[in-house]
Each structure stands twice: as C-alpha cells, then as structure tokens.
C-alpha cells in the first residue's frame, strides 16, 4: 500500500493519551482525514459500517476484549472489509499471534510523544505494507503458518482457560482430536512445550486493565 491523497483513517486505541498523540500527528499530515478515534472494537465496527475508511490503526485489545479475541475480531474485519488496510499498532510483542490477524502491517507502539511521532513517521513513509515491521533495529520477517478457522476457534477456547475435555465437549469432537489440534497449533505458533503454551494462553486471554499498559 502506498499512501494516497485524502486518505481516510480510523484509530482504535484504548489508551486515550496514545490515541490523542496519534490523531494529532496524523492531523498534521494535510492529506489524511481522521474519520474516527475510538477506544473499543464495537465502536470501530460501527464507524466502518457508517463511513468510508481507507486505513485502520488498531490495538489488539480493548477494555472488554482479550488479545486473542481482539485478533479474532481483526481477522474477521479484514475478511469483511478487504479493501481497508488494517495496521496493528500495539505494545503486544507476540509475532506468532499477531501475524494470525491477517493485518496489512504490524508496528510496535513506541512510548511518549517523540516515540509516537517516530512510529507515525515510519508508518507514513512506508512504501509497502506487505512485511511485518517492528522497531527498525529489530526488523524481521516471520514465516508462521496461518491457523485454520477451526484451529483459531480452539485457540480462543484455550485462551479462555478451557481444558481439552471441555473444548472436546463444546465442539463435539473427541478428546484425541482436540489434543492433536493443540499440538498442530503449537507447531504453527512455534511453541515448544505445554508449559510455554499455557503461559502464552494466560497472556493472550488478558484484557486492557489486566495487561500492564504503556506509560506515557
């Protein structure tokens, strides 16, 4: 994606100080129009249904939505609004999960006014939204396999601290099948063992307020 004239942008950011800085910086760009600055996914969907938006900047969680649930929302949003460029702007550095969102680009949130300015400048100057970008000195391409829709559904249940037996009952699948799917998910996310997977699911099930926010 190359930035176009009169680009229409929406920002979904639960931290008001970050959204204030980002919207201020973007408004300073004469060809960018802010169509909405909101703090939750429900309002973001409403904005996209009511207004023409070209680009969405979004965190991956809000006050009611966990990291996994937020990424699931963004996956579905990208499928529904395929013409919109979704840019994740986040403090959550879990590439294996973030890449599952199918977002056009992923940038790590930088702290403070100057950090936000640097982050916005990097985004605005990008010529392509194909690669997954982190801080310039830690730029990397990740080759994680995308989970299937059912694997993603099971992953959401694991993030809600459901057991294999509970998930098998909820999905009308056998215990052995869900156990196999868990191992497939771990392979695709490059998680080495059950302890690491459990720790990842505890974090991925966190919501704004549970997860330590950035301090500005």
Structural features, described:
By secondary structure, the protein is of the alpha/beta class. The protein folds into two domains: 7-138, 3-Layer(aba) Sandwich (Rossmann fold), CATH 3.40.50; 149-204, Winged helix-like DNA-binding domain superfamily/Winged helix DNA-binding domain (Arc Repressor Mutant, subunit A), CATH 1.10.10. It has nine helices and five strands. A five-stranded parallel β-sheet has the order 2-1-3-4-5, sandwiched between helices. Helix 1 (16-27) crosses helix 5 (112-124), helix 6 (149-159) crosses helix 8 (175-189) and helix 7 packs across helix 8. One of its GO terms (biological process) is phosphorelay signal transduction system. Keywords: DNA-binding, Plasmid. Residues 8-124 form the Response regulatory domain. One of its GO terms (molecular function) is DNA binding.
């Amino acid at each position: 994606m190359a930035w176009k004239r009169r680009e229409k942008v929406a920002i979904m950011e639960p931290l008001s100080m970050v959204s204030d800085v980002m919207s201020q910086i973007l408004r300073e760009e004469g060809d960018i129009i802010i169509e909405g600055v909101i703090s939750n996914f429900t309002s973001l969907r409403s904005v996209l249904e009511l207004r023409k938006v070209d680009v969405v900047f979004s965190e991956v969680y809000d006050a009611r939505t966990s990291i996994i649930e937020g990424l699931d929302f963004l996956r579905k949003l990208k499928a529904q609004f395929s013409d919109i460029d979704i840019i994740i702007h986040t403090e959550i550095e879990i590439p294996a999960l973030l890449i599952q969102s199918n977002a056009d680009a992923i940038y790590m949130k930088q702290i403070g006014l100057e950090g936000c300015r640097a982050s916005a400048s990097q985004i605005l100057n990008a010529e392509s939204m194909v690669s997954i970008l982190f801080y310039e000195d830690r730029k990397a391409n990740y080759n994680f396999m995308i989970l299937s829709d059912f694997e993603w559904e099971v992953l959401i249940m694991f993030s809600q601290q459901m057991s294999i037996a509970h998930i098998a009952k909820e999905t009308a699948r056998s215990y052995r099948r869900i156990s196999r799917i868990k191992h497939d998910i771990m392979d695709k996310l490059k998680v080495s063992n059950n302890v690491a997977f459990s720790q990842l699911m505890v974090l991925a099930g966190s919501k704004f307020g549970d997860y330590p926010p950035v301090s500005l």
